[in-house]
Design a protein that fits this description.
2 domains; Rossmann fold; Arc Repressor Mutant, subunit A; 5-stranded parallel sheet; 12% strand; globular; alpha/beta; 10 helices
Length: 213
């Protein structure tokens, strides 16, 4: 198994790489500390798995870029707090698996092995939450349709609810900032609010809306 590690914290990335290099099932491992062109680096390295330190905000968008260029490469979030919202965020952002903050080294190796096989290790309580979320999203989608929001506007409304700036939304959705500005204006008009902060407040009152896609 060939593993690429992304963390802007050099010490963390290199220590994790040193451990993985000693594991029998790991054929090659490389730490990366710069997010620029990480997708190209993953392709050139021939990574089977890319580990992302998700305490770094840029990891979320970078994982999507890696997946787009290398669809057969498993993307795994590291240092995830095993609570429903954070695990759901991993799923929403296209991660194939996650390593909880509480995981031991042997557990991490098993998670990587399964991720390479297309499998995910998940706490049963979190799995139940994921199934419940599917049901909630069905209701949320119906609500969005009542507001006549398009699928793209639903995505942008969700990101506005997280407090994302136009530039961040553009990077995540691979659109121009000008296009995002137009969508934001449309969302504000349809939700009948006057500011981005009001969108965030409205969505906080209705947590389902934060998860609409």
């Amino acid at each position: 198994m060939r593993v690429l590690i992304y963390s802007p914290v050099r010490l963390f990335g290199e220590c994790l790489a040193a451990f993985l290099a000693s594991a029998e099932q790991i054929d090659a491992v490389a730490p990366e500390h710069e997010v620029d062109d990480l997708d190209i680096k993953a392709m050139e390295f021939g990574a089977d798995v890319v580990l992302f330190d998700v305490t770094a905000p840029e990891s979320w968008a970078a994982a999507g870029l890696v997946k787009a260029l290398c669809p057969d490469t498993a993307t795994v979030a590291v240092a995830v707090t095993e609570v429903a919202d954070e695990v759901l965020a991993c799923a929403d952002n296209g991660f194939d698996a996650y390593v909880p903050r509480t995981a031991q080294t042997g557990e991490m190796l098993e998670i990587l092995r399964r991720a390479q096989l297309g499998e995910t290790v998940c706490d049963p309580r979190i799995a139940r939450t994921l199934f419940n979320e599917l049901a909630r999203r069905h209701t949320a989608t119906e609500h969005a349709e009542d507001l006549h929001l398009t699928p793209r506007e639903i995505q942008i409304a969700r990101l506005l609810g997280r407090g994302a700036a136009n530039k961040e939304i553009a990077a995540e959705l691979h659109l121009s900032v000008a296009t995002i500005k137009n969508h934001v204006h449309s969302v504000l008009r349809k939700l009948e609010v006057g500011s981005r902060a009001q969108v965030a407040g409205l969505l906080r009152e209705n947590p389902l809306a934060l998860r609409m896609r």
